[in-house]
Model the fold of this input.
Amino acid sequence: MPLRAMVTGDTHLNQRRDWLPRILVDAMIGADLILHTGDICTVSSKALFDAHGPVLAVAGNNEDDQLANSLPDRITLDVGGRSIILIHGHLEPGSSARTAVQKSYAGHSDIVIYGHSHKPQWEEVTGTWFLNPGSPTYKRRELQFSFAILTIAEDGEIDVKFTLFDEQI
Done:
């Protein structure tokens, strides 16, 4: 069965804001599944995602205790014959999320989806594709806000499209 997943992360809701950009909400409504790489921050913030479809989320390093205790550190799933690992990415203090995730997970899955750095990325290393959606609400030093749409066809073909935007309306 094909999958169209809206992939996001590092939203840091209730630390800086308590609403989602319209462009992100529209993407969630059109998705089969919402994948969140963590740093949602609170249970009430997670409810903003839950209201728009099925959500798989992992704990980030900024969740309050109640949310952190309700989320796993890692989710593994299989879609269209493709294995996917969903994690936050805060693996090694002092190391970039990209470096730490690639070091820990290259060769262990078809796709590894992670966050933590707020930097959009789609890169293949040692037969594993690494996807970081960036952040739709807290871009840090990035030029634009972002999220990704991951599509896996019935034959296992993978397609990723980033949505980059300047304003959070």
Notes: The mean pLDDT is 94. The first strand starts at residue 3 and ends at 8. The chain is about 20% helix and 30% strand.
